Amino acid sequence: MTVTRCCRTAFVLAAMGLPPGAQASGAGTAIEIPDLVGTPFAIVALVSFVLAYVFVIAEEFTHLRKSKAVVVVAGVIWVLVGIAYAQAGVPGAADLLKMQIEEYAELLLFLLAAMTYVNTLQERGVFNALRDWLIGRGFRPRALFWITGVLAFFLSPILDNLTTALVMGAVVVSVGVGNPRFIAIACANIVVAANAGGAFSPFGDITTLMVWQKGVVTFREFFALFVPSLVNWLVPAIIMVFAVPDAAPAKLTVRATVKPGGYIVAALFALTIAMTVSVHNFLHLPPALGMMTGMGILSIYGFVLRRQELRERNSDSDPGAMEVLVPHGFKPAKRPFDIFISMKRVEWDTLMFFYGVVISVGGLGALGYLHLLADATYTDLGPLKANILVGIASAIVDNIPIMFAVLNMNPDMSHGHWLLVTLTAGVGGSMLSIGSAAGVALMGQARGIYTFFGHLRWIWAIALGYAASIWVHLELNAAAF
Prior knowledge:
This protein has one domain (100-314, 334-481). The two termini are 22 Å apart. Helix content is 69%, strand content 2%. By secondary structure, it is mainly alpha-helical.
C-alpha cells in the first residue's frame, strides 16, 4: 500500500470513526470532528436514513426501486452535515464528502467492468449453453442438487452470487417441472452455496470487494476462508439432500449454442481478473484500473466481433433486394454485438443503491453515529460477538451498509477477526431468502415454489452451517487472532 493510499484511508477512517473532538487531516488541513450526535440535524439525518431503508425493505410490495429512496436521502444527510458543521464552526465537510465519492468511484468502475463482462458472456450464450447442457444430461434430482450446488459455490467467486444463482436456478426450474419440492430445496441450496462461494473471493460479493479495496485483507488472504465457506455450505446441504425426492427425471433435449467469440470473452475475463490482481498486489494501484483496462480490451475485441457479424449479415442478404425501411423505435430481431448494450444492461439500480448507502453511511459517520455504534458493539461486546451479530443482521438488513459501517468504524481487532467479519457478512444473508440478492432473485424466478417460508423451514440447518463455519475459522486460522 502506497503512502498516498495509507494517508487517504487513514483520513476517511478517522473522519468516520474517531471520537468527537478528534482531529483528522486531509487536503492539507486539519479537520475537527465535532460532537453532533445529539443535535437536531443529526437526529433528522438518522431518522431520514431509517425511513429510506424502510422503503428499501418494502420494495417487493411498493415496487419502488431500492436505489431511489437512498439516493435522495444521501443528499439530504450531507446537506444536514454541511449545515451542522457550519454552525459548529468546523470546516471540512466538503473534503469528507469528496473522499466518500472517491471511494465510491473506485468501486463503481470496478463493478461496471465486471458486470459488463458478465452481460457479454450472457449475450454470447455462454450461460445458456451451460444451463442447457446440464438440463440435457438427464441427471437425477439428488445428483442435480449436488451439481448445481458445487457449480454455484465455485462460479460465484468469479462471477457474482446473483448471476450464478440465476443460471443454476434456471436449471432446477426447468428440470423440476412437476416436482415443486425439489425446486424449493434446490433453490435454497443454491442460495447458500452462492453466498458461501462469494465469501472467499474479492470478486464474489460487493462486501468482499470493499474489504479488498480497503486493503484490510489481501487477495491471497481471502483463501484462508475457503474451508470455512465450504463448511458453511456443506453442513446444510448434507442435511437438506435427504429431503430431495429422487424420482427419475425425463431427459430433455435442448440445444443452446455459444455465439462466436463467447469462449474468447471468457478467456479475456480471466485475463482481466489476473491483471487486476497483479496491478493491485504488485504495483499497489486501485483494482478499478485493471478492470477498466480489461473492459477496454473487451471493447476492442467487441469491435472485431461487430465487424464480423455485419459482414456475415451483408453476405447472407440478397444484393438485389431493396432495403426495407425500419420505422423509428423498432429494433431488429438480431443485432450485431455492441459493447455499449452490455454496459446499458448493467444493474444500475444496484450501483445507485450502493452510491446511496456509501454516501449516507459516510454522512452518519461524520455526525458521530459510527463511533457510538463501535462503542456499543466492538467495545462493549468484543469483536467475536460483534462479528457474529454482523452476519445475523445481514440476513435482515442488506450486508452492504453493514460492512461499509464496519470498515468506517475501523475497530481495533486482530486480522483473524477481520477475516471473520468478511466471512459472516458474506454468508449470514443465507439464513433468510430476503437476506441476499441471490435469494430475492430466485424467489422471483421460481415464484410461488421457492418462497420466504419455504426457505425459513431450513433456517435451523443453515444456522448450523453458519455456526460451524465460524468454529472452523477460529480453529483453522487461530494464528491470525
